[in-house]
Structures are given as structure tokens and as C-alpha cells.
Fold:
Amino acid sequence: MPASAQDAAKDADPSATQPVADAQTAAPAKAEDDEKKGEDEAGVHEGAGKFDYGFSGILARDNRTDLAPLVLGAGKPVATAEYTLKSGGYYRIAINADGSQELGLSGGDFFRAIWVNEIVVNDVEIRPMGVHSIEFDSPGTAVISFVAIVPGRYTLSVPGSSGDGLQAVFNIQ
Structure:
């Protein structure tokens, strides 16, 4: 840069003439101010999350997604397609049995990868600590509300079956 341009730059920006050391010492002073500010607010720890679920939290009805129901019946496929879920998402799924045959769904891996909020059967709410399977001896509906937790690919299948149509596949991302 020509000498006249250098002189013009110095006149226009007075901070350009300050030593570099001043800029480096300003950063630690700011950090000390932040520490003092934190000491003044002792006893208050704000745990702001990534999402704002509102006053009721993640389990509010507004945050719940209703999934396509599962069907248990002789010769009928359990699910029409695979389910794709988001880890941390709140879901509800109905399992409908037509009573044509005594059938159940088993999937310990799936039930360990989710947190079950409740299972509702005939207007009775059950809040289990864990579930391995659900079996229907007669026609009825069970509704499971849950939060998907552990990412992976899981299946709920009719015990003793080997066909793809007798299982529901859940992909938690």
C-alpha cells in the first residue's frame, strides 16, 4: 500500500494505531465481567431447552402425533407400512384386534427403546414400568402413548410368526 494511503487509513481509524496487546487484554476483562455477573445471580439456574413445548411440556396433547393403527386379525397384515419416528417425539398408536384369532404383539427391544406413558384398554389407563408384549383373547383396542427414545430399527411381531406381514417396523431417528 502506498505511503499516502497508509497515512489516510491511520487518520480515518484511530483504533488502527492501538497496539495489538490492548485488544488481547480486553477479552480476559470481558470474561471476568461475565463471571461477576454470574455470581450476582447465584441460586438461579436456567435450564432452557432446545424446544419450547409450552407450559404442559412434551406430553401435552398438542405435541402428540397419532400414528396409523395396527391391526390384529387372522390373515391380515399388522401394519400397512413402516413407521418413521423422531427420537424425543410423543406418539400414540392404537392396536385393534378383530377377535378372529387369539393374537398378540411382542417386541421387547421396541418397548425398551421407548418410554411408555400409558396403555389404555377399555377406558382403563395403565401406566407400566415396562412392557414386553400385548395379547388379545377377544375383540378390543389398546392405545399406547409413548415417547421414542433410542434410535434404531425395531419390530413388533406376532409371536411364532415369520412373515413380513405379521410385523410392524418402527424406525426411530
About this structure: DSSP finds three helices and eleven strands in the chain. The mean pLDDT is 80. The two ends are 56 Å apart (CA to CA). The CA atoms of residues 98 and 139 lie 5 Å apart.
